[in-house]
Amino acid sequence: MKLKTFIIIFVLLLLVVWGSYKYFSRKKEVPYNWALVERGDIVQKISDSGQVVPSKQIDLQFEIQGKIKDIKVKKGDEVKTGDVLAVLETEELRNQVLEAEAARDVAKAKLNKILAGSSPEEIAVYETAVENAKIALANAEISLKNYEQKLTDAEIEAENDLNQAYEDADDVFNSTYTTADQALLKTFEYVREKYFYFTDSVSSNVKGKGQIAKAVFLTAENLSQLKSALEKIREALSVIREAMEEPAYQAAVSATDETSIDTERATVDGAITDIITAEQAIASQKIDNQVALTTAQSNVDTAQNTVWTAQGDLQSAEDKLAQIKALPRQVDVDLYQAQLKQAEASLTAAYQKVSKAFLTAPLNGLVSEISKEEGEMVRLTELMLSLIPKTPFQIKVDIYEEDIVKIRLGNPVDIIPAAFPDKALKGKVISIDPAEKLIGGVVYYEVTIDLEEKEQGIKSGMTVDIIITTGSKENILIIPEEAVQTKDGQTIAQVLKEKIIKDREIEIGLRGSDDKVEVISGLEQGEKVITR
């Protein structure tokens, strides 16, 4: 019973330990919120509060400088919103538009080309280049094999020719060895049996040379040593022949002996000449072999270099073919898309410049003053003409410096008077003061809004809430503003895919008044982004 109880307790402890381990070692998931990248509409608005003021004369200037081409109104004329009041020369501006359109078309063509890929004709050109490179390589390899065979043949031929020269030299050695042997015998014969048996200087000289010649002769193993022995024998024979002419021996020397010595000397000279000729033949054969082998090896090296060059050309042709067949890299597509956007932005700027050459009436009113004449140059800060509004009231509002860059002349405005907040009036931006105002150390710019409709009860000094619509887009990619982050100077969103979060660089556009942000690039519809 005690053993059974112990076993039960032990098993329970094991289960507790195992369960604790599994509980504390389980992977804890990090909580996060996410939103879908989706399509929708976006409206960018700026809200602030302003004050009703009596209408004042509106001074109008061109937004660009230039030469005045046409003034379409005169003082006292009544004008309506949108009427063209004056026009600048636009020929240069229209040329800029044409250049921008051409640049846009080029950028679009480049993007379409990279997206479409290479044409069959272009691919065929590169395929032909590959085939030609293969043929060139095959020919170079055949040429290399031929030259390698020629080198082998040259080595065999050189070896055979040199062996033949050595064999010829051996024949010369054998024949001249016999000649030397006979001449040596003849020399000692004359010393012992003929005239030079006296112990005089001639006999000693002949014997000395003969002994030297015999020693060299008996140990001669090559042509050079044998030639040395023959030269000593010839010297001994010369001494004998010279002694025959001396008076002491002249009477005892017969003409036959003289002829015999002369013949022996000639035979020795011929043997020496044969040795010299054989040695020269070997040396000449070695030189010829070296020249032939050097030429053959040079041809092999040149052929090998040609093969290497052909291999490089083939690899280059294959790489170009693979490159032209490959799908465009996303980085290249992004580059050409960016260039197209840049060209479109330049075209938009050119269009805007042309539009700024037309001065239009921002409101209904009367022309009160015209400060310039046709043909004059007008600068950015110079007054062109002035209008007196027909409506009795305007709205003045100070806009924060970060918001003023979003506002343009003509932007529509919703106006809500504090006195009757259920009544929304319509207006539009008619003036943006270029001079800043410091309010509590913060920079603001005064914006004038035209009240486009009369409303009973509106009085000067009333406070109004205004909502300026500065931009809108339809059917675009949008994400919550909480999903947009800044990291290392880049605008990013954190994309969630299969429980993995990755940073993705994005480009954003309009920021909507409903905390939505336009996504220009970097995300696709349906992706999940982390929201803070």
What does this structure look like?
The protein is of the alpha+beta class and 532 residues long. Helix content is 51%, strand content 27%. It has helices spanning 2-25, 91-116, 120-193, 201-219, 223-244, 247-250, 255-325, 330-355, 401-404, and strands at residues 33-36, 38-54, 58-60, 66-71, 78-79, 84-88, 358-360, 365-370, 377-378, 385-389, 393-400, 412-417, 425-439, 442-451, 463-480, 485-487, 490-497, 500-505, 507-511, 516-521, 528-531.
Which terms would index this structure?
6-stranded antiparallel beta barrel, 3 domains, Butyryl-CoA Dehydrogenase, subunit A, domain 3, elongated, Elongation Factor Tu (Ef-tu), domain 3, 5-stranded antiparallel sheet, alpha+beta, about 525 residues, OB fold (Dihydrolipoamide Acetyltransferase, E2P)
Our measurement of the CA-to-CA distance between the termini, rounded to an integer number of angstroms, reads 62 Å
What is the count of DSSP helices, taking H or I runs of 4+ residues? 9
Secondary-structure element order, N to C: HEEEEEEHHHHHHHEEEEEHEEEEEEEEEE
- Per the CATH scheme, the topology name of the largest domain is Butyryl-CoA Dehydrogenase, subunit A, domain 3
- Using the CA coordinates, give the radius of gyration: 57 Å
CATH architecture of the largest domain: Up-down Bundle
Question: Brief description of this entry?
Answer:
The protein is of the alpha+beta class and 532 residues long. The chain has helices at residues 2-25, 91-116, 120-193, 201-219, 223-244, 247-250, 255-325, 330-355, 401-404, and strands spanning 33-36, 38-54, 58-60, 66-71, 78-79, 84-88, 358-360, 365-370, 377-378, 385-389, 393-400, 412-417, 425-439, 442-451, 463-480, 485-487, 490-497, 500-505, 507-511, 516-521, 528-531. The chain has 3 domains: 32-52 and 391-532, Elongation Factor Tu (Ef-tu), domain 3 (Beta Barrel), CATH 2.40.30.170; 56-88 and 357-390, OB fold (Dihydrolipoamide Acetyltransferase, E2P); 134-318, Butyryl-CoA Dehydrogenase, subunit A, domain 3, CATH 1.20.140.
